[in-house]
What we know:
Elements: E1 2-8, E2 23-25, E3 48-49, E4 52-53, H1 54-62, E5 67-70, E6 94-96, E7 102-104, H2 110-120, E8 123-128, H3 135-146, H4 152-159, E9 170-173, H5 186-198, E10 218-221, H6 229-238, E11 246-253, H7 266-293, E12 300-308, H8 327-342, E13 347-353, E14 363-366, E15 369-372, H9 374-381, E16 389-391, E17 393-397, E18 409-416, E19 419-426, E20 433-439, E21 443-453, E22 471-472, E23 477-479, E24 482-487, E25 491-500
Parallel strand pairs: 1-20, 2-5, 2-13, 5-8, 8-9, 9-10, 10-11, 11-12, 12-13
Antiparallel strand pairs: 1-17, 3-4, 6-7, 14-15, 16-18, 18-19, 19-25, 20-24, 21-22, 21-25, 23-24
Helix pairs in contact: 3-4, 5-6, 6-7, 7-8, 8-9
Alpha-L-arabinofuranose is lined by residues 27, 72-74, 175-176, 305, 353-354, 359.
Amino acid sequence: MNTTRAIIDTSRPGPLISRHIYGHFSEHLGRCIYNGGYWVGETSTIPNVRGIRSDIVEAMRAIRVPNIRWPGGCFADDYHWRDGVGPKEARVPIVNVHWGGTLESNHFGTHEFMDLCEQIGCEPYICGNVGSGTVREMRDWIEYLTDDGQSPMARLRRQNGRERAWKINMFGVGNENWGCGGFMTAEQYAQEFRKYATYIRNYAVMGKVNWWEAPDILRVAGGANAEDTGWLEVLMKSVPSSLMKGVSVHCYVKPGEESDGVRFSDDSWYQTAANTLAKEAAFVKNIEVMDRYDPEKKVAMVVDEWGLWVDNEPGTNPGHLFQQNTLRSALCAALMLHIFHRHADRIRIANLAQTINVLQSILLTEGDILVKTPTWHVFDLFKEHQDGAFVPVVWEKAPDAIAKGLPRVALSASLKQGALTVSMVNLSAEEEAGVSIGLNAARPLSAAGRVLFGRPTDHNTFGDPSRVHAVALEGVALRDGSVELKLPPCAIASLEIALDMSAGKGERL
Ligand code: AHR
């Protein structure tokens, strides 16, 4: 068995891995919100709290979802928030023109989304409408959400049943405005952004401090796909960082083979890994642009749509993007999260697309059955990285190359309250991998882990919902101050190592 040896120097923690890179994206698309998604309505036989499905809330609380981006996506630039507030029986249904022409009741609107976030215990990340909206519509939404005073929108909110204002820390100004959000040029959008962003005011501090000194809502500019840095360059050049605290970048990975979600060869496992890892170079190019205009890294890169995009499940509505989710999807998630860790100083928010029944979902539903996908398990395994300090992994014996020049194993580490979290991937679909972890400035007191593994095509179904699930990682041993273990083929694991930090500095790296 091939064994790699890593050294982790806990005396040199790096930037914080923001918990917000573990965010999710929920669009009005397919069955993410309605027809099996969050919203079942108060009279449903499926257990719910105020119409929101309880098994979904529970599954999302379990992985400590830090934020949800809503209502789109392309849908955001066609959504008019006033249609989704007030008595439900008076709400006018909407035709979801982007996604299959589905008729939606508008019963899941602002109050229901904010209730969902409160039930999960996460932050809202709302995306406003630039493409078909107005500055006034967006400014009124902010007033409705955040004003505790006597403004017209605060009164309307109270009339609709919510006394206290909500707290909004992140707000998106349109989505993909180079495409579905209005087919604008970068220069055009930059001008629009400056105007719209001016009216996203922090009502929470109004009257307490001057508006120009007020702590900001993080206004996120709509961005391009990771490969296109031209759009980003224009934004960075023409919008002051006082207005733009974040820029969105979208990043979808293709599996490299014509296949549906569950039938593919091992070659696609390797190609998915290669395609995911290749995205790091694209992020680095974006970061270089941002560093040129913003060396102090005040502006966050917000990867608010990412994930593996495979073929839809045969026989489903092509506009609903319902896709199965295998260990190959979990591999993409694990490697992408590792990339975000490595660039934690710039990538500070990210949202996997999309939570339920759409693209790379963490949850699938049919009737009252809920399935946690392999991707959900990655978020479960990795959750201790949230708000940990990134710690670089240095190879003493680097992993050897396997198919397509990929490294045999990938590791990422973070430190929080005297404990080290190490997440690991065995990229080989055929062979076990040995891992030995040495610590440079601490002594391991104990180590325990969990692992998800199987064949690349393994997945959970409504008939067999727990086929893929994490189990205890057997055979983890402490030997001469090192932690030693072996990973089965196609494995994603995480290890918690309790540390004695007083154990001297050890050798320097
Ligand atoms: O996630 C599906 C769609 O992909 C989103 O609506 C859009 O922003 C992107 O092109």
